[in-house]
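sanity check both lines:
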Amino acid sequence: MLSRFAAVVCRSHRRLFLLSTAGIQTMQTAVVRCVPGEPKLTISFCLDGSHKHMLRDQDEPVGKVLTRIGHNLTKNQGKKKKKKQRDEEPSDAAQPVSEVTLLFGEETVEESVLNSEAWRDGAVLCVGAVRYTVLRNTPTFTTAELPRSLMAGFPVCPKLQLEFGNLEDCEFTWFKETSFVPSNEDIGCRLRLSCLPKDRTRNGLVKELQSESAIEAGPGTCTFDTRHLFTQQQTQWPELRVVSYNILADAYAQTELSKMVLYPYCAPYALELDYRINLIRKELSGYNADLICLQEVDKGVFEDSLTPAMDAFGFDGVFRMKEKQHEGLATFYRRSRFRFLSSHDVVLSEALGSDPLHVDLLQKLSSKPDLKEKILQRSTSLQVSIFQDLLQPERSLCVANTHLYFHPTGGNVRLVQMGVALTHLDHVISSVSPGAALVFCGDFNSTPHSGVFELLTHSSITQSHSDWLSSGPDHHCPMDLASPFPPLLSACGTPPYTNYVGGFKGCLDYIYIQPDHMEVAQVIPLPSHEEVTTYEALPSVSHPSDHISLVCDLLWSSQNKQ
């Protein structure tokens, strides 16, 4: 027997989750999808125990459809009769066609009326003695799916897409089996969800979902649990909370290299996406952030797993796929805090090769054609988003998100990439949103001793820096680089490491800010070394990535206004 819950467990601007077993009465219905501009319409209903889905021309007379329905019913009835009377001689006499009519306001719709006009909302389809209420373009879930992996203590966020309605108007009823955030008492149970699609005036047909698997036990203490104690509340003006996190793309976690060489210490099930995404969703939701910049985000993960979850937590997001890759960059922002104004993403190699802004840098590389070609082949992207602070509309942010070239000997490549990125950011701010504060997040694959770190924090780097020789003498192309920005500040400092795997540990991830625009109010402590190494290294059963997220609270400077 299903248990009843009365509490509202999650309510956001976009979703309403209700725990209740209050049923919704159903009636015989015929659902019609008829969209202007499309040549066909569909008519779906249950006829004599069989589901019918008819595809018809919108400009066809309705009489032809009604005749077809009558013939189908007669044919079905004839088959049933023959099945029961197999020993009797079959009759050659034609079966009478069942009477089928379409009514609107108790008046019969003329058979010559076109389908597009005849199938109106509220009409009644009469098939013999059975009456169907016609629902035209009723709110309908085109996608409604539950996650495959469910764990106690981790939020469950279905993937939902709605046509002819609004998600904020819909009702979602969780049956126990379980609740929205399963507890240990629910281990072994399956989850059922009743979805009622709605707009402001109409209800659609209920969609019932059931989980494929039962709820499993969670991993126990996770590396982010203690960190969540510092982020239990959302920030208040003038503060805002920023997260930067390389979440480890599934495309990389499932390779033989990852399983056998990079992460041999990690339990195989803990590398599976279904397992890791539970940890990622819970970790991100517990930070109560305002801005979240993610790297190594698989396109499918963004669309199917992160977007539904972040939407339920009050976030919208934008995604930038890396060229020739299966993963990219994602930036999520809290809807109640920021308004998304515009996007100015670039592929750094394409910008270098074609944008006049970088002609001088490209010319300097021409002396080393092999290095130039190597840089131009990279798919590294820079995601750039402009936001308006809704609490102080006169203030805006330029949020940059990137994942620089990964190779250990690629310091010179990363320097050139950063030179392109900084010039592009300066151009975007000056031409699109003058005075906007820059927040630059990402996996820079650069330690605090690197040329990239020096360029960002000192505004310049000389041709004598060792990174120009990182790829060997054949690729040595020394040059002086200058940043168009005053020295930036690493908001989370330089922790001992933000990436910890079996063969390497180091600080590669940063959140850079402009000190004259923002100050650091709080840095959320990283997990202790004991927590990180409980299962030897990262990722592990208690941590979903080989990187550690950076989380900090920033404070708008009282001096800076646009």
Q: What stands out?
A: The first strand starts at residue 8 and ends at 11. The CA atoms of residues 106 and 424 lie 66 Å apart.
